[in-house]
Fold this sequence. Notes:
This protein has 12 helices and 18 strands. It is α/β, with parallel strands linked by helices. Strands 12-11-7-10-9-8-17-18 form an 8-stranded mixed β-sheet. Strands 3-2-1-4-5-6 form a 6-stranded parallel β-sheet, sandwiched between helices. A two-stranded antiparallel sheet has the order 13-14. Helix 1 (about 15-30) packs across helix 10, helix 5 (about 105-115) runs parallel beside helix 6 and helix 10 runs antiparallel to helix 11.
Amino acid sequence: MMADGKKLDVTIVGGGMITNDLLLPSIYHLQRTSMVRQISICALNTPPLKALKENGELREAFPGQGFTAYPSLSEPPDKDFPNLYKEVIAAMRRGNIVVVAIPDHLHYEVVMEALRHDQHVLCVKPLVLKYQHSVEIEKLARANGLFVGVEYHKRFDRRALAAKRDYARGHFGSFVMGEAKLIEPYYYRFSNFQNWFTPDRTDPFTYIGCHYVDLVYFITGLKPVAVSVLGIEGKFPNGNAGYLWSHGRVIFENGALLSVINGLGYPDAGAGSNDQGLVMYCEGEGKSALIEHDDQYRGVAYCYLEGIGCGGSQFNYVSPDFYRLVPWEGAGFKPVGYGFDSVAAIISTTHRMESETAGLPDDAALVRRQQIIQDVDEKGIVATPANSFINELVVEAARVSILSDGAAVKIVYGGQPQVQGKC
Length: 423
């Protein structure tokens, strides 16, 4: 894959797990296929940046590639730079891209900072925690012809794309009852999660359950109209409290029910890197239908000589579908899977916008960029503020609910969609 046109400079804000596991390797590959020029990573302090620099797997997969670290790696590890990202973004040339990969409650201010400096945005999910913030982001981005893509990577799973097509063609009837689960590994509790995953900021439903709510909406087009979430609190190793488990119920506009269970507790010794899947029951004329995705076990199981699998276990359900590094015809290894496809789709959309409008008068360039944004919104594959706004309504309602002991919270649409508090 060779890309023509302008190469993009990419600044990643956040040097944590998702940057290491998906974002940086994906962007490295786009760099060597001529879509990305320079890569910078800005973190709160130097330890995560040093870990990325010293990652042996990334060095092997992407020989000779690297990034500019902010703060400089010469800074002491215990010195924090909470506002450095503002300086780094301000120094970028317009029309490049900022990748927002930080805790959920900080997304809004960083996304807005990027847009105010004429930068496109790739943001990990959920975009923001309040619907009104997503409206502000959409308006500012559209007015300036800037693309905002939200990294709901399950939309790029071929299973989901096939289900979406077949559902639209009427092959399943209407969704009526479903169950989704996504339980992340226990070892997450020992990561930086313990410093920010507190009850006042987020919970498992908001952080990972939103993937499956978005996926049901993506497949069916049905809007959620009520949400209730109960959380189970526990303690992280550093003593901070957090919702370590959650159970949500989402009601859709046709009366369908979706149960969503989430947590940070899949056994580290377990065969899967997590436990996740979706079951949707549907009804048609005189018969029923079923959509079932086992997203933990994808038909591949390895037993290693040593515990090199996720969590250190020897026997693993190895999913090749989300993200793997594999041999290819070039140097090192390349990322494959729907995780990479999602990142690549957002960055290639931005690349297309900038390449197609290079050299045009400012007014004509703005109109063309706005048209591309509209086309992507309507296509509905890449998640954008316009076509995935139901997620902001859902997480806003979920936060109200979980802090109110699971009370049901309504979502009302119309001229001004909003969360209306407890039912």
